[in-house]
Design goal:
Elements: H1 3-19, E1 27-31, E2 34-38, E3 72-77, E4 80-85, E5 92-97, H2 106-117, E6 121-125, H3 141-145, H4 150-166, E7 171-177, H5 179-188, E8 195-199, E9 216-221, H6 229-241, E10 247-252, H7 268-289
Parallel strand pairs: 5-6, 5-7, 7-8, 8-9, 9-10
Antiparallel strand pairs: 1-2, 3-4, 4-6
Helix pairs in contact: 4-5
The structure holds 2-acetamido-2-deoxy-beta-D-glucopyranose (NAG) (2 copies).
Length: about 290
């Protein structure tokens, strides 16, 4: 690493240290094309010190039995390890991008299988390169996130999309959860994908919406403190101004951050909400990926 690299890294570190408070209520946002950690936008909605960061709340049970996986893991698809499920002859593909906990989460794979059942080849790439966030106290979230840029992850997804197109997938959509939502938004600024769906995003800022070029659906939660309804409405207003793209924005009542992929499976209301979010995502992809 050159002098400039080290200087930049140190500067980032200082910015991060300066704004992460002791309770760990760090919030991340984009600035000048990069991204950084900033304090909670709304102290009243911030979690109390005893609570975890909402992005890390209700972490997935990695050994949960969701009834078996229909797909398999491939070790190199466009340079990425990935869980793939559904028919390779589908002609249209959905890439699902994980939250901080990565592509191994059983519930995420279950969602992938269900999307595949709707007629898609579904790919869940490991854009965290075998290094998902784990609740390891020796490696706090703010330190971990510094080496997991969603903007870089979007770049790494491009060779995967190229490989999928080579394999006959004429239409490629991207669905992202939390961190993956930012990856999806970055890809919606390019010509790489036909449509994107973003569920309870983190790291996405209003300015991103000015650059969106592809039809975008944003699913927010009424009780989400990371992308609260106020912010999601600002996304919608920016998209209204951005005449290039069709968009659909919805706020799910009483839904916390993570409601689409990390819901409480013993809570019927949470299950129903997650199912509705999945159905809305599939509807959006059906509209733009299944042309006839
Ligand atoms: C995780 O899933 C496994 C297998 O279904 C189960 O035995 C275990 O109790 C679950 N853990 C938690 C914390 O729910
Ligand atoms: C999940 O939902 C059940 C049923 O509503 C509730 O009893 C339980 O406390 C919830 N678990 C968590 C971790 O919120």
């Amino acid at each position: 690493m050159g002098d400039t690299g080290i200087t930049t890294l140190l500067r980032c570190l200082l910015v991060v240290l300066a704004v992460v408070d002791a309770a760990g209520t760090d919030y991340l946002a984009k600035e000048n094309g990069g991204w950084h950690v900033s304090p909670s936008p709304s102290p009243s909605s911030a979690p109390s010190p005893s609570q975890k960061h909402p992005c890390l709340d209700n972490s997935p049970n990695m050994t949960e039995n969701t009834g078996g996986e229909a797909g398999e893991v491939v070790h190199d698809y466009g340079g990425l390890e990935a869980y793939v499920t559904g028919s390779r002859h589908a002609g249209c593909c959905v890439i699902l991008v994980s939250d901080y906990y990565g592509f191994r989460a059983p519930r995420l794979r279950q969602i992938a299988d269900k999307v595949a059942y709707s007629g898609y080849y579904v790919v869940v790439p490991d854009l965290l390169y075998g290094d998902p966030y784990t609740d390891d106290p020796a490696r706090p979230f703010w330190l971990w996130i510094m080496t997991h840029s969603p903007v870089e992850a979007a770049e790494k997804t491009k060779p995967l999309i190229a490989a999928l197109k080579k394999d006959g997938m004429s239409f490629v959509g991207v669905g992202g959860y939390c961190w993956g939502g930012k990856v999806a938004v970055e890809l919606s600024k390019t010509e790489e994908t036909q449509a994107v769906v973003v569920s309870h995003p983190s790291l996405v800022v209003v300015h991103d919406m000015n650059e969106v070029k592809r039809p975008i659906e944003i699913l927010g939660g009424e009780s989400d403190t990371i992308s609260p309804p106020l912010l999601v409405h600002q996304f919608e207003q920016a998209l209204d101004q951005n005449k290039r793209v069709d968009h659909f924005v919805k706020i799910f009542p009483k839904a916390p951050h993570g409601f689409a992929c990390r819901y409480n499976a013993s809570d019927p209301f949470a299950v129903k909400t997650a199912e509705e979010a999945r159905a809305d995502m599939i509807k959006w992809f059906d509209k733009y990926l299944k042309q006839h």
